[in-house]
């Protein structure tokens, strides 16, 4: 999930996913929501994030899962697939932050501006640049705008968590991944070069499917959620057809 939102950002997608699967939507530790870090066990690095997510799966009695992550959550999902591949049957990455290409400077500057000036104007400007706009036919986008604004205004990231920024994975890391991966990115994505990210993933990941979603930027889970949901479900069902 993106920064400063909660699991409710999945509201456009969860109905489609839950028709055939039991869905667990988890608030990321250190972000707004119900998951509150233990002060005695702070999230200091990516390894701590993976350990927390693994412990959460243990608590839910989940051994082998289908994992779907969007934006920052996509980056976290890829970290879990790399670190604990025995727990991930398949991973669907939806506009993952960084991971395959570095984030553009404009994104970093806009994020800093929102942090220093958490106003409706700055939040709506940055989210609009990313394709998430308040329109009469877009209630899901309006929900995300409210989530980000309220998160920026009223929530303070723990200092340890704030230092953990999504990174670009090395060639060796990606080539070693054996978990089947689906990568979907908006064809007009602005936070990095979508075509280059897709090409790099296709060249390096051993078990890979991916494509660019038409007519969208970072908003595809809202504006194109029917197409995205159907593509993710097709990807997950392929495992079942082969006895997974």
Q: What's the β-strand tally?
A: 4
What characteristic shape results from the CA principal axes?
globular
Low-confidence stretches: none
Indicate the CATH architecture.
Answer: 3-Layer(aba) Sandwich
Radius of gyration (CA) equals: 17 Å
How many angstroms does the end-to-end distance come to?
A: 27 Å
Number of helices: 11
Oligomeric grouping of the chains? single chain
Instruction: Please tell me the total number of domains.
Output: 1
What is the third-level CATH name, the topology?
Answer: Rossmann fold
CATH superfamily: Alpha/Beta hydrolase fold, catalytic domain
Strand order of the largest sheet: 1-2-3-4
Give the mean pLDDT. Answer: 89
CATH hierarchy, class: Alpha Beta
How do the SSEs run, as a string of H and E? HHEHEHHHHHEHEHH
Structure notes:
There is one protein chain. The protein is an alpha/beta fold. The chain has a single domain (7-102, 161-241), classed as Rossmann fold. The protein is 45% helix and 10% strand. It is built from eleven helices and four strands. It has helices spanning 14-18, 46-59, 72-83, 105-116, 120-129, 139-154, 159-162, 171-176, 194-204, 220-223, 225-241, and strands at residues 65-70, 88-94, 181-186, 208-213. It has a four-stranded parallel beta sheet with strand order 1-2-3-4, with helices on both faces. Strand 3 (181-186), helix 9 and strand 4 (208-213) form a beta-alpha-beta unit. Helix 2 (46-59) packs across helix 3 and helix 5 packs across helix 6 (139-154). The radius of gyration is 17 Å and the shape is globular. The mean pLDDT is 89.
């Amino acid at each position: 999930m993106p920064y400063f939102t909660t699991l409710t950002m999945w509201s456009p997608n969860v109905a489609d996913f839950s028709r055939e699967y039991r869905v667990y939507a988890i608030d990321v530790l250190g972000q707004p929501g119900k998951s509150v870090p233990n002060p005695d066990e702070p999230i200091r690095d990516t390894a701590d994030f993976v350990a927390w997510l693994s412990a959460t799966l243990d608590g839910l009695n989940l051994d082998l899962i289908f994992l779907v992550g969007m934006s920052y959550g996509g980056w976290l999902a890829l970290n879990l697939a790399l670190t604990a591949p025995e727990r991930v049957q398949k991973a669907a990455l939806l506009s993952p932050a960084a991971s395959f290409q570095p984030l553009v400077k404009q994104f970093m500057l806009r994020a800093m501006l929102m942090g220093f000036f958490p106003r409706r104007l700055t939040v709506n400007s940055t989210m609009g640049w990313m394709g998430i706009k308040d329109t009469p036919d877009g209630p899901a986008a309006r929900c995300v705008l409210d989530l980000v604004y309220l998160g920026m205004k009223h929530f303070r990231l723990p200092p340890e968590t704030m230092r953990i920024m999504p990174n670009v994975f090395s060639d060796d890391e990606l080539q070693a991944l054996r978990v089947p991966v689906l990568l979907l990115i908006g064809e007009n994505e602005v936070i990095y070069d979508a075509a280059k990210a897709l090409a790099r993933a296709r060249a390096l990941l051993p078990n890979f499917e991916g494509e660019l979603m038409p007519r969208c930027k970072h908003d595809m889970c809202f504006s194109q959620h029917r197409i995205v949901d159907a593509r993710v479900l097709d990807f997950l069902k392929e495992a079942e057809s082969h006895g997974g």
